[in-house]
Amino acid sequence: MEAGAIDVGKKGPSAVRNELKRLCSSLRKECVSLVDSFYFTDEYLDSTIGRYDGHIYDALYEAALEEPLNASDIVLETLPFIKKCIGVSPVSRL
Asked: In this structure, are 45 and 91 located in the same domain?
């Protein structure tokens, strides 16, 4: 449509986009019910924030604790770059 394959006139692309936004907005109210109708378990979805029990923040905290990237405060490989950014010169090991 926007590339010219479908001729919808000058107002066509924006009219189609506006209608799509309107339809998505009305569908948004039903999204949880729609997904719940498939009976996927939290374990199957492996979703941190899409939890049936509503304990989103507890789940986010637990997931952050389990994330390997959060095992240390600073990733050692980035330390020279961080020091450069904050104006601290790295100590030479020689």
From this structure: yes
